[in-house]
Amino acid sequence: MSSEQVSKSKVHLSVENIGGIDNLSTSFEPGVTVLAGRNATNRTSLLRSIMAAHGSDDVALKGDADEGSVELTIGDETYTRTFERQGDTVISGGNPVLDDPDLADLFAFLLETNDARQAVARGDDLRDLIMRPVDVESINEQIESLQQEKRDIADELSTLSNLSDRLPQLERRRTKLEDQIEEKEDELAEKEQEVEEYDASVSERQEVESELESKLGDLRSKRRDINDVDRRIETEKQSLDALESEEDELEDDAEDLPEVAGGKIDEIESEISRLRTRRQQIQSTVNELQSVIQFNEEMLSGTSSDVVDALRDADDSGGSVTDQLLGDDQVVCWTCGSEVDKSEIEGTLERLRTLREEKLEDNRAHREQLSELEDEKSTYERRQRERDRIERRLSEIESERETRQERIEDLKSDRSDLEDEIDSLEQTVDELESEEHGDLLDLHREANQLEYDLGRLRSDLEDVEDEIADIERKLDERDELEAAREDIEDELAELRTRIKRLESEAVEEFNTHMDDVLDVLEYDNLDRIWIERTEKRVREGRKKVKKSVFDLHVIRTNEDGVSYEDSVAHLSESEREVTGLVFALAGYLIHDVYETVPFMVLDSLEAIDSNRISRLVDYFADYADFLAVALLEEDAQAVDSSYPRYSPA
C-alpha cells in the first residue's frame, strides 16, 4: 500500500489480552489522535498494541491470559499478530505491517523505554543507534571479500616472483642443451658417414646385413620407446611432487586455522536462541513492572480512578475522607486492606523502580552479548567453510596422487617389458655378429646410442622450452594482477571512505534535525544539542583498531546569558529525558521513517510542558500518517482541539 493510500485510509484496531487490555476495538482517523487521561488507564497498552501490529516485540500478554492477539486494518489490508505463552516465554506469530520493525522500534515508537531515548539518558555511544538503519554491514562484507581477494592476488604475485627468479636458470639450461644437441648431431653425422663408408667397401653377406639392419632398426625404435616412457615417468613424478607440495601448504594452512570444536556453532545458535527468548521474557517483565509502578503511583497519589470514585462516594454519603485516607502518613492498602505507612509503600515502589532499571540493564547486556555471539558465530562459520574447502582439496589430492602412482607403476611395467625386448634384440644382434662385420655392428651400436642420447637431449630441451613458455605466459599475467590489486586497493579505500562519509552525513543530518526540533520546543537555557564524530583506538580481541565514536554535546545558557558546553551526565533527569526525546525525534526525520511506517506513537512526555507538547505534536503531524500521543488531561487541553480524543476504558 502506498503512503498516499495509507494517509487517506481509516484504521481499525482490535486488541485481545495485551498489557492491561481484555478486549478492545477502536478506529483511528488519519492524522493525530490524542489518548487523554490519567496514568494506568491502558493508554500505553494501546500504544504497544499498535506497535505489535507493526511487528514490534515490545509487548506483554495480559497477566492472566495464555493467548492474545492484535489486528490492524488499513484500507483493504489486514495485519494480524498472535501471542502465545509457553512456559516463561511468549511466542509471536502472524503477518505484521513491517517485515523488519527495527527502524520503527528505534525512531517511531517513542515510549519511555525506547532504546534511543534511554541511550541518551545513559550517556551511551550513539553510533550504533544512528548507523543501525544504514546498511554498513554489507559494506563491511564487501571490504572483507576484497581483502581476501587482495591476499589471493598477493599469493599469486609471490608465486610469479619465484617463477621469475627461476627463468634465468631455465634459459641457461636451454642454451646448454642446445649446445649439447648440436655436438651430438655432429657426432651422429660422423658416425653415419663411417657406416656408409664401411657399407660401400663390403658387398658380401647382404642377407645377413639386411637382417642386422632390421634388428638394429628395431633396437633404435625400442630405445626411443623406452626414452618416451622415461619422460612420461618423470612428468608423473613432477606432478606428484607438485601435489605433495600443495598438500603440505594446505596442511600448514589447516594447522594455522583455529580448530572449530564439534557442535560449537550449534552451541552458539542455541545460546543466541536462549538469549533472544530471555530478552523477550525480560521485556515482558519490564512492561508488567511499568504497569504495576504506574498503577501504585496513582493509587498512592490519589489520582487513580478507583480512589477518586471512592472519595466521591464518601463525600456523597457524608463519610469522612479519613475512612479512605487515614491521615498524611497512613493509607489503607488497596491490596490487603490493612493500614500501612506511606513510606513503606514508597519504599516498595522505589525497589520496583530499581528492579525495573536492573531488568533494563540486563536487557541491554543481553543485546550486547547477542551481538558478540552473532559475530563469533560468523567467524566460526567462515573458519569452518575454509576448513571444509581444505579438506575437500586434500581428498582430491589424495585421489589424484593414487591415480598418478598407478600410472607410474604401469609405466614402469611398460619400461620393464621394453628392457626385455631390447635385451632380446641385442642378443639376436650378437648372434648375427660375425668376425667380418664386428666393426660394422660396433658402428651401428654407437650410432644407436648417439640417437638415444640425442633423443633424450631433445626431450629435455622440449620440457625446458615448455616450462619457459609457461612461465612467460604466467608472467604476462603479472601486470594484470598488479592492476587488479591496485583496483582493489582503490575500491577498499572508497568503501572505507564511504563508511566515514555515511557517518559524517548521518551526524550532520542528525544535528540539523535536532536543531529543528529544539526550535519547535523553544527552550531558553538549552541552545543546542549536537553530535560529534571522533575516532578512537579500542581493543578488539588481541589487537587495537580504530573505531568511530559519536559523542553527544549540549550547549546551555546560564542565568547571565553566557553559553557553555555541558555533558548529558550533568543535566537534570527531566533535561535528559528531553534530550533523549529530541535525539529520537531527529532519528525519525533523518531516516524518513514516515515513508515506510504508517504510525508514530508518543508517550511519557511529562518532562515537557503543555505548550511545547502542543507545538511538537503539530510539527510531527505534518510527517506521520497516523500520530497517536498519550497525554495527561491537563496536557491534552493545550493540544489543538480539532484532533480526535480517545480515552481508553
From TrEMBL:
Ranges of biased composition (kind: Basic and acidic residues): 202-214, 398-416
Biased composition (Acidic residues): 180-199
Name this polypeptide is given: Chromosome segregation protein SMC
Stretches assigned to the Rad50/SbcC-type AAA domain: 13-221
Organism per entry: Haloferax marisrubri
Residues covered by region (Disordered): 180-214, 363-385, 398-420
GO molecular function: ATP hydrolysis activity
NCBIfam families recorded: ASRP
UniProt superkingdom: Archaea
PANTHER family cross-referenced by the UniProt entry: CENTROSOMAL PROTEIN 2, CENTROSOME-ASSOCIATED PROTEIN CEP250 ISOFORM X1
GO biological process: double-strand break repair
SUPFAM superfamilies, per database record: P-loop containing nucleoside triphosphate hydrolases (SSF52540)
InterPro entries given in the database record: P-loop_NTPase, Rad50/SbcC_AAA
